[in-house]
Amino acid sequence: MLRNLFILLLFSVNLVHSQQTDSVAYYRNLFPNAHAVRTKQHTTVTIKLVDGRPLITQEQEEEILYLDKMANANAKQSLYQSTFVKVSDIEAKTLVLTDNGKYKEFKVSEFTEKDELNNSFHDDFKSINFIFPQLRKGAKTSLTYTEQINDPRFLTTFFVNDHLPVISSKLKVIVDQGVTLKYSEFNLDQLPVNKTVKDTRKGKIYTWTAKNLEAPKNENNTLGYRYRYGHIIPMIGSYQAQNGKVSVSENTDALYSWYSSLLENVNRDSPSEEITKKVGELTANLQTDIEKVEAIYQWVQENIKYIDFEYGLGGFIPRNANDIYAKKFGDCKDKTSLLHAMLQVAGIESHFTWIGTRELPYTYKEVPSPIVDNHMILTYMDGDNPYFLDATGRYSTLELPTSFIQGKEALVAKNEDTYVVMEVPTVPAVKNLFHDHSKITLENGVLKGVGESEIFGNQKKAAFYSLERTDNTHSTKQFYNQFFRKGNNSFQFLNLTEKNKFAYDKPLGVAYTFSISDYYKEIAGSIYLNLNLNKKVLEYSIDKKRELPFVFKYLEAFNLELELEIPAGYRLEYLPNDFECHNALLTGSISYKQEGNKVLYRQKLETFQLVINPDQLPLMRETVKKFEKAYKEVLIFEKE
């Protein structure tokens, strides 16, 4: 009898371990590359009308099963709240399967609240921090909490899938009669999402469900997760208040009406004496408005430090220009506020402008809510020509909007009641030109050269940002050695003269000398030399397994010229044919020409698209192969 009980007990213990092991093994087999799976991802949004106003709560449920020993790295977690969203009723616990076949709960008992940002900017954005105890392989975490949404424009985006596999994903939105729900769906086409809409006595219930979703693939240099993850953006279009209909996120008009209200009290005080004096100094000898705009724009970029604080209500209301000028720092809307005020002092009209960076895939028609924007700039109109002034960066000119807003819609304030939606242009590649001309000679097995370069636009800005981080001659030389590298790893960047360093309105000029050892071959009296010292197109190589779009920060152009002196006592035996490649992605060419005792080489390249779509990846691979073949061509010199 006792023996049988012992066997039964042993079997039960083994069964428990087997259940735990099988659960982990099952999901490891189903998702072999996953460290964890999100077994539950449920959100229930309830929108009630109370005294003619929407009362909004969001109940969040999340469970994660950890599949390997890395589990404890995820023990620290945070929730966030602000003016718009208040968090309550938090329950967090770790569930560990024990020998008796039951899960033992280890509840989180300590939640620490922390101000996330400097009080001089925001005092409403806080994090709630906690640690899941006893987290290990095979353990589950459970987290539930309630969010009170205090502004009807800020319903939370629901992501159907996640960077982890998701076993059960569910969004339920319960709305009272009198509330009109809008929603926009993104990237759901390829997901097994089931959507239902049910009428009830009190209103409607909208439900989206999906099961057993793999984590979306991720690759480098691709679009942000909002372009790839399936998600739903619920919005309150309007609601019926006691005195009539109230429009919330019904359309762009409603969004602008709210944005405009946030500007009502901005810069009501007269500009300070310091601002007025500074504007006078900056514009004293300038004749045209556009010259004055450029001078003030440059000064704000140079002298007001950018602090990236974009949360809470402060993420939408610009602070007063006098305060920003006195403190000498601010975020995007603060720098915009100061720039607007300084132009006003100069008698120049400008326009507050809201915009979403390239991280966000939305248009104002699709998402007429604050989710569509995460940035503020200023627009100046020179006649019918708009200039988009983003003072968060440095080295931006009027003709060079920052790379992360190019191609995006901008909501431009005209006055209190009217606006216009414009598209920020994509700066053409020729404006972002790298032009390099080198005179080279072959001496005792070493290729020696004297080079001169001019660097424009976004390529210049990128160089300047890197040069800001160099603090001595050695580190500066190291940067240029990498930046101008030619031929092979023996390239040595020698003497250096810089021109227009950190200048806004002129190209960066660099004069230099260099040498490359062991580059050309001398065999049996013949010299073999490859003049393709810069194989730029190979940087665009696309892995054959790649599936996602390939993204460039900006369009770029290259004009690379070499002037080779034919070695004394040699004649040119073979000159490669010229090469050209033109398609929707780029245009490029390589040309060779002999003039007297010199060979002139030129490689030109110009890109056309910021995003290479998946169906264009084969074309890019084919293009790179063509250049790769052309890059192998060599000159041959024979002794006379």
UniProtKB/TrEMBL annotation:
Residues 79-216 form the DUF3857 domain. Residues 280-352 form the Transglutaminase-like domain. Pfam families: DUF3857 (PF12969), Transglut_core (PF01841). Gene3D superfamilies: 2.60.120.1130, 2.60.40.3140, 3.10.620.30. SUPFAM superfamilies: Cysteine proteinases (SSF54001). This is DUF3857 domain-containing protein.
